[in-house]
Specification:
This protein has 211 residues and is of the alpha/beta class. Helices cover 29% and strands 15% of the residues. It has one domain: Rossmann fold, CATH 3.40.50.
Length: 211
């Protein structure tokens, strides 16, 4: 069976941020792709189109398409799957994705001085709007609870958080599984535990970690 993994980076980042994770999945026998999208200059609809076009050109045909997406990338993955239900089946794993909207992004969007930092990624994206209520594939969320990140510089987050995203922002009723890991938002991208859990979900349909 032909299986590939699509990796999507988050806000302010570049596909190179997913490079280490790509190497780990490649070592496990999976072909991977990490397409370019512009998280600040493009709105969510434009980025979904760019990602879908990359999938058509570089991934298809394939029997199973798995998606591992960090932060904003998870929102775009959900929107793409909603717009294109014809995509091959597979698992979706989101890493620290604020599916209920991001308090930190909301603060940045509120002030004209800081608004350029999130660009066009807020509306129908980090505001938590425009996401499907149901999903026709297995979806697992890995969330962190180590509060190290820019959230401290932007007023802090009162609840349990990963330094950028509050734990409460990562829950969605369409999720198959949700696991909390002792990681910060950025450290998820370089964690062997995250790779282990992603592979477990892809291969078995469930995470191996127990909260």
């Amino acid at each position: 069976m032909t299986e590939k993994i699509l990796l999507l980076h988050g806000l302010w980042l570049h596909p190179l941020a997913m490079r280490w994770m790509q190497q780990q999945f490649s070592a496990a026998g999976y072909e991977t792709i990490a397409p370019v999208y512009h998280s600040i200059s493009n709105n969510s609809a434009k980025n979904v189109t760019l990602i879908y076009e990359a999938v058509q050109q570089l991934v298809l045909p394939v029997e199973r398409l798995h998606i591992v997406a960090h932060s904003l990338g998870g929102i775009l993955a959900l929107q793409m799957l909603s717009c294109h239900p014809e995509l091959p089946p597979g698992s979706l794993i989101t890493l620290g994705t604020p599916v209920k909207g991001s308090l930190i992004a909301q603060r940045l969007a509120k002030y004209r001085l800081f608004r350029p930092l999130i660009g066009h990624s807020f509306e129908q994206g980090l505001d938590g709007q425009g996401l499907p209520k149901v999903l026709a594939r297995q979806w697992g969320m890995l969330a962190g609870n180590k509060p190290i990140g820019v959230g401290r510089l932007l007023g802090g987050i009162a609840d349990v958080n990963d330094g950028v995203v509050a734990l409460a922002e990562t829950y969605h009723p369409a999720q198959t599984e949700h696991r909390i890991l002792p990681l910060s938002h950025s450290s998820m991208l370089f964690s062997g535990l995250v790779v282990q859990e992603c592979l477990s979900f892809i291969q078995r349909g469930r995470f191996s970690a127990i909260n």
